[in-house]
Design brief:
The N and C termini lie far apart (36 Å). Helices cover 44% and strands 16% of the residues. The radius of gyration is 17 Å and the shape is globular. Strands 4-3-2-1-5-8-7-6 form an eight-stranded mixed sheet, with helices on both faces. The chain is built from seven helices and eight strands, in the order H-E-E-E-E-H-E-H-H-E-H-E-E-H-H. With 213 residues, the chain is of the alpha+beta class.
Length: 213
């Protein structure tokens, strides 16, 4: 195992620990993966393992066709991850979680609008698709949703977030759930200001330019 693979395994372990401790998935929910396109393999979290116990050595290594190269049984969501990587060659990582406030709110028909600068910059646009059992229909919905966004919410289930790395993909989910909680609390006390198009443009101009600079 080379130094790069060792580091990626450690990052996957850390991300799943964050997903669980942040309450973004139960001990049996969620999964993450990262692709090494140069060496044609994917590292993905294993199936059936308590998310607090995902260690670097627990991670499963597969080729781009899903054949196990090292480790045990990969997540049952592997087929979704592979399809997303094939459709989005610009991304390197996927985090799948079940943020309860965001999923419950959107599944009930209420879609939170941009209410924080982080939401504007990280989420930009939230893709929403109806629930479908794992299979071809579900894959098509996820792939199509991620053509126009970096995060897609599957009603009554969870979200798939993509990024250049695991931490970027995870941050999108965390920002989405944070915004959903704020909107929920705001509704209890009379509502919360939603950014106008002008405010969104100003936020993008200032925050993105500052980040790029």
């Amino acid at each position: 195992m080379d130094v790069r693979e060792k580091r990626l395994r450690e990052e996957l372990s850390e991300i799943m620990n964050r997903v669980y401790t942040k309450g973004l998935a139960s001990s049996v929910g969620g999964n993450s993966s990262i692709i090494c396109r140069e060496d044609s393999y994917v590292l993905i979290t294993p199936s059936g393992l308590d998310k607090m116990n995902v260690l670097p050595e627990s991670i499963v290594k597969v080729n781009l066709d899903g054949k196990v190269l090292d480790g045990g049984v990969p997540s049952s969501e592997l087929i979704n991850h592979l399809a997303i990587y094939k459709s989005r060659e610009d991304i390197n990582a996927i985090v799948h979680a079940h943020p309860p406030t965001a999923v419950g709110m959107v599944s009930a028909g209420f879609v939170p609008k941009p209410v924080t600068p982080e939401y504007v910059v990280m989420i930009k646009k939230l893709s929403i698709v109806d629930f479908a059992v794992p299979g071809e229909e579900s894959i098509n919905k996820l792939v199509n949703g991620l053509k126009e966004s970096d995060i897609v919410l599957l009603k009554n289930h969870g979200v798939f977030s993509v990024g250049q790395n695991l931490f970027e993909a995870f941050a999108r989910i965390e920002v989405l759930e944070e915004a959903a909680k704020m909107v929920f609390a705001g509704k209890l006390f009379g509502g919360m200001h939603e950014f106008s198009e002008e405010e969104i443009k100003e936020i993008i101009d200032k925050y993105v330019r500052k980040k790029e600079g």
